[in-house]
Fold:
Amino acid sequence: VQLVESGGGSVQAGGSLRLSCTASGFTFDDSDMGWYRQAPGNECELVSTISSDGSDGSTYYADSMKGRVTISRDNAKNTLFLQLNSLKIEDTAMYYCAKDVFASQTDGVVTAADAWGQGTQVTVS
Structure:
């Protein structure tokens, strides 16, 4: 399993970034996927998940980012995306792509991830 994130960087508050995660070594379109983040000194936080087929209503967003983030996927290209908008200083963190993680707005985390990428740094100032 290989998950390679990209798209992080430094941005001013209010700005946007689009993170990407290219997956290989497993059947991507059979896997629920998600994004975590971790800031220095903080616990790892599940930001968003999406089901294997990306169907409507199959996404989850953490309350801390709801309305400012959109998760999507392109199964033909084995790629997961996370669009970050209206970024705040407190969004500064390492963002990690994760495999086989699923959550719902009603139940929270249903399935924990079994693999993660190396992360991409997002810095908001």
